[in-house]
């Protein structure tokens, strides 16, 4: 595991949805009208709202370029995608190609899925687009199990138009400023932040962003120390502070009423209707939200550190595309995954998802949703991990997500959440 902080890269990004189609088992060749074998496969991916999906755009572009190929698209709800994918893989009716994420810390993580025998290994070229120093999150027994068409950056996706209407010309620079702004906004009948507290993914990422400044900005080797048994969540001052910061946001009414039961739809609806200023999520969500309301401007801001602390960002080759082990001999599916690494596919993915290119030095930040964090990105010293990629199993992150919901309802304390995460680490 690398210990160079500038090479720690994280992940979480929402993707848009298309109308859900029926699940299909692994596809294969069939006899076409011209007597030649028709190439076909199925593709499953997560969806968070009803805007254009980069995965659908990629599939349609590929079929346009390859008219003999038929791709069945299986869009699945974001909040239950990991569990659904596992169930389908275990039942033998998962799609040939599927969207996954790095590491072993989530139910759809490529390392845990590959270890369970659900995925087929890919050519070494799959590693060409991955950030240096983080390849262990995409490999199992020295083989790659996912390709990444772009980088993603987590932060606070901010409705700049609403922020200005609320009198916030500049985003809060410190956590203390954020808490003060939450109180002022709540007095006016709005919420500064919107949270999908009913979904472990969004609850979890909220805590991880708090931890990026409280834990990993101070000690980028914390995960390595936890793996070695040198530290625990419950005994970590940084993790205690991270969850206490979440409680402080709850107490300051930073989140909308009913946040503990809200789903992903509440995130987008609240932001495009001007009922909230920002959400925890990926920068790629900014252009998607602007599609829903062209009168609004969305940008990405870093989670503000405590007074005197350092800001921290989470950047990674976020979402991956993997091959079902049962489709290892499906040539059409293999060809599609190889095509995803070509310039044409990378351009489509970047345009639709607003993903970052691997080469940030040549990226034009001006006018983009990432302009507010340009300096932090180019300096490179402010990258922090999306920690659960390096955790040993999905249960740790599940305890974190469920724990944040418990904090929202008052049924859990930070100490209880952290102890549960330590217990899950050993499962």
Structural overview:
The protein has 427 residues and is of the alpha/beta class. The chain has two domains: 5-151 and 317-358, Periplasmic binding protein-like II (D-Maltodextrin-Binding Protein, domain 2, 3-Layer(aba) Sandwich); 153-315 and 371-425, Periplasmic binding protein-like II (D-Maltodextrin-Binding Protein, domain 2, 3-Layer(aba) Sandwich). Helix content is 37%, strand content 15%. The protein contains 15 helices and 14 strands. The chain has helices at residues 54-65, 81-91, 110-115, 160-165, 175-187, 200-216, 222-227, 237-251, 264-272, 285-292, 331-339, 343-353, 374-379, 394-409, 414-425; strands at 30-31, 37-47, 69-77, 97-100, 119-120, 139-140, 143-144, 152-159, 191-194, 276-282, 298-301, 313-316, 320-324, 383-384. Strands 1, 2, 3, 4, 5 and 13 form a six-stranded mixed beta sheet that branches. Strands 8, 9, 10, 11, 12 and 14 form a six-stranded mixed beta sheet that branches. The protein has a two-stranded antiparallel ribbon with strand order 6-7. α1 packs antiparallel against α12 (343-353), α6 (200-216) packs across α8 (237-251) and α6 (200-216) crosses α14 (394-409). The longest helix is centred in the middle third of the chain and has 17 residues, at 200-216. It starts with 29 loop residues before the first strand and ends with a helix. Residues 1-25 and 27-37 have low confidence and may be disordered.
